[in-house]
Structures are given as C-alpha cells and as structure tokens.
Amino acid sequence: MASNRRVLGALAILVLCVCTSPASDAPASADKGKPHIVVLATGGTIAGAQASQTQQGYKSGTFKVEDLIAAVPTMKDLADMSGEQIVNIGSQDMNDEVWLKLAKRLNEVLKDENVDGVVITHGTDTMEETAYFLDLVVKSDKPVVMVGSMRPATAVSADGPANLYNAVAVAVDPGASGRGTLIVMNDEIHGGRDIEKMNTTSLQTMASPERGAQGLVNTGKIVWFEPSMKKHTSASEFDVTEAATLPRVDILYAHANMSPDLIDAAVANGAKGIVIAGVGDGNMTGPALTAAEKAAKGGTLVVRSTRLATGIVLRNSEVDDDKMGFVASGELNPAKARVLAQLALMKTSDPKLVQTMFYTY
C-alpha cells in the first residue's frame, strides 16, 4: 500500500505540474476566505490500483478518500478540503442501499452552513444512474459535483488527479450553484440528467448525446454553457429522507424474437416496474407487447425506452401507450428511466401521473 501511495502521489504531482497554471491564474477564493468543500468517496477506478503500471486489470476502491485528497495538494489552493468514505466499491456494485446512504448523508452535509459544496468520487460504470438519482433527491442548490476516472490511480498518465482538481474548481465556482448534480470528466462538465457512458475504456467516455455538455473546465478554468431546464434538486418533489428501500424496477433488453417469458418472470419475481430497452422507438415483438400490456393492466408500471444510443421515445407513436397503459421515456435511456420509475413508484403507479413526471424531470 505504501508503494502504491508513493506512485499515486508522484503521478498526481507530475500531472498537476504539467496541467495547472500558476497560482495567480488558478481559480482562487476571494478575501472572505477559502470555501469548504467536502469530498464524499464511494470508490471506483479513481481510487483503483494495479499490480503493475502495465497491467490492464486493476482493483477498484483500493485507495481511501484521504489518499485522493493528499495526492492533489494544489486543491488546497482552491478550497479547504475534508473527506468522508461512504463506501469503497467498484460502481458495478452500486445498489439502492448505497444510494440511500449517500443521498441522506449528502443532504446532511449540504445543510451545514460551513459547507459550500460537495465533490463525490465514483466509478464510471453506473455514474450516470447515481448522478440522476442524486439530481432528483438532493435538497440543496449548493454545487454537487461527481468525478471519476477511466484509468486507475497507479496507471501511467492517470486521469484521476486532473479530474479531481477540476471537480473541486467547479464546486467552488458560483456558476455551479443551482445546476443540479454535475459530472466532471476529461475537461468537460455534464449534467446528471443528461450524461451517459459511451465507451468502454476511452478517456472521452462521458457525453450528453441529446443536450450536450454544460461547460468546459481546463486546469481549473471554466466556461459555462446552458443549464438544464428540467426540474431537479431543490425543485424536485422526490424525497428519500425516510426511505429504507426503493421499489424494484427491472430493465429488459428487447431483441429479435424476444420472448414474453422475460416480462412474466419479472412480474412473478416482484418487479413493481419494468423498463423495456426497446428496439427503435421503444418497440418489441408482438408477444412481448401483449405480455407488457397484461403486466401494465395488472398494476406493474411499464416504461418504454430504447436500446439505441440516441433519440427520443415518442408517446403513442408506433405503440398505443394510452390504450396499453404504458409510459414513454422520452429522452431518458433505460438506466435513467429506471431511476425515475423507482422514485415515481414511491408516490404512484398511475401511468398517466408517472408520464407527467417523465415530462417534468
């Protein structure tokens, strides 16, 4: 572990010596004193380590939040830093229990008048889902910035240190307030509702294919674009303060010759909602469509999304949603549609009311 920390520290200093501007040019606090940023760590590649720098595989969540903060000492020029370890896992293991724990702690931290913003370290595999979940349940307009990396901390040319520095720079910037959950990766700033992981291994993996980035950040210097016009955070109706669990919602991938058995099995095993990652405009085979209609009329929430990377699933286009009792996901991909469906089901299973939520959020 000690050798890994030395490598991490050396790489971080190397990256930041190359990337950051002189202190006079870097984003700095006013004479009022530096803002206080809390880092909530959940693990992921940004905290990962390899057995050797040339090894492709690595173990997520090896380093702790204290290691990550110490590895980027120039962040202290931007803010007073403190950190908490929520969990230390690869984001493929992210689950409802961790979401609720993270959301509740995040809202507690944001209530502290001495805290100006929060940075959350997270793996990239399910970052888009956690980001949208937090976008819907955070009850503050203070900056919440998620950050990860595509290369582990011990890799040659690790991207985590520069991403983390930029995330803190965004969190202390007044322009980040009121924008909901933001994600900083590879010099770009994205909204939690819009972002998707687009590539398995590329540094340029995060994108917002429908709406575009909300800004750019390079060595701490920020250019802002248009914010999201959808409701989020303090304007959101969703609240998980007292929640112990979230409703089960399954995602089913549509394909040629899709069997209705998959839908029947989801209902039989307790799914309160089903999201169909449909072909084209959220479509599926005739037998699957019949099974989905039966499920919807039996009280299971059925949401039509698409397995395609871009495009909007239109209501009552190829499928008669009104007649069958379905919800059309609009811009939301299957993963994000599942998040909104889970929260919606805590309020209602009426597809008409849920459809309004999909238009709103």
- Ranges where pLDDT stays below 50 over 5 or more residues in a row are 1-31
Tell me the CATH architecture of the largest domain. Answer: 3-Layer(aba) Sandwich
Strand content: 15-25%
Q: Give the helices and strands as they follow along the chain.
A: HEHEHEHEHEEEEEEEHEHEHEHH
Describe this structure in words.
With 361 residues, the protein is α/β, with parallel strands linked by helices. The protein folds into two domains: 2-235, Rossmann fold; 249-360, Rossmann fold. The protein has helices at 2-19, 65-71, 96-111, 127-137, 160-171, 261-268, 286-297, 321-324, 334-345, 351-360, and strands spanning 36-43, 80-89, 117-121, 144-147, 181-185, 188-191, 196-197, 206-207, 215-218, 221-224, 249-253, 273-278, 301-306, 327-328. The strands form three sheets. The chain has an eight-stranded mixed beta sheet with strand order 2-1-3-4-5-6-9-10, with helices on both faces. Helix 6 (261-268) packs parallel to helix 7. The radius of gyration is 21 Å and the shape is globular. The N and C termini lie far apart (44 Å). The model is unreliable at 1-31 (pLDDT under 50).
